[in-house]
Specification:
It contains eight helices and seven strands. The strands form two sheets. Strands 1-2-5-4-3 form a five-stranded mixed sheet, sandwiched between helices. The longest helix is centred in the C-terminal third of the chain and has 13 residues. A hairpin with a 2-residue loop joins strand 3 and strand 4. The model has no long low-confidence stretch (mean pLDDT 94).
């Protein structure tokens, strides 16, 4: 994964992408026990987005550096990497407020635990709810920050429903 993260930093340095951050299951592993996943999700902001957003410049840059396309991902040293535009207000905020960590000497931006939780809640698939429950049980997140995110992005009622359906009654 180190080489994949180095290539993502190269995209930023080349001005092809703006800020980016790891999200999804790999993002969660920075806070929780490792889980099985097949790809690295990189959420991207564009400094000067074109009228019609295309990921072609990202793919061309990486293909020219010897990486291969596989479906909607680019395989970088064995890691399928999906580049996803951070188009919604929640995703944009998550990228902007991501934290920088050191991964084997490579500075890497990762979404906060609170944003990963809110995104999982908003996405609402079974695997997202499972990850959300794991976050809750781990006690990793700051509840004040999480509640602020829920409020800003209109997710309070979704959280209340999740609590009723999935969290043990006290």
């Amino acid at each position: 994964m180190k080489i994949a993260l180095t290539e993502i930093n190269a995209l930023r340095q080349a001005g092809i992408i703006g800020e980016s951050a790891i999200g999804g299951a790999i993002g969660a592993t920075f806070y929780l026990e490792p889980i099985s996943t097949f790809d690295l999700d990189i959420f991207v902001l564009f400094d000067h987005p074109p009228l019609i957003l295309t990921l072609t410049p990202i793919y061309e840059f990486l293909l020219n550096r010897g990486h291969e396309a596989e479906g909607d991902a680019i395989v970088i040293h064995g890691w399928p990497v999906q580049f996803l535009p951070a188009e919604s207000p929640l995703l944009s905020e998550a990228v902007q407020q991501a934290v920088t960590v050191d991964f084997e000497g490579v500075p890497t931006r990762v979404m906060t635990a609170e944003h990963l939780m809110a995104i999982a809640l908003q996405t609402g698939r079974g695997k997202d709810f499972s990850r959300l429950l794991t976050f809750v049980e781990s006690g990793t997140a700051d509840s004040g920050k999480f509640n602020g995110i829920l409020t800003r992005h209109g997710l309070v009622s979704a959280w209340q429903k999740f609590e009723r359906n999935y969290l043990p009654k006290s």
